[in-house]
Amino acid sequence: MISVGIDVSKGKSIVCFLKPYGEILHKPFEVKHTESDLKTLVDKINTLKEETRVVME
Fold first, then answer.
1. What is the pLDDT of residues 6-20, one digit of tens each?
2. Do residues 46 and 15 touch, judged by C-beta distance below 8 A?
3. Where are the alpha helices (DSSP H) in 1-57?
4. Would you give the DSSP letter of residue 33?
């Protein structure tokens, strides 16, 4: 299972994709809370080939 960790703050979030045991699939990256950035994030998540869980804090 892939975990998508999203650290939400005002105006932007930091996102990281992880496999079990902390293996990083995608280095942490910033997503602004704009329609275009959020759509890009959804598109990236939708390309993942395994079961995916999104965790927000």
1. 999 999 999 999 999
2. no
3. 35-46
4. S
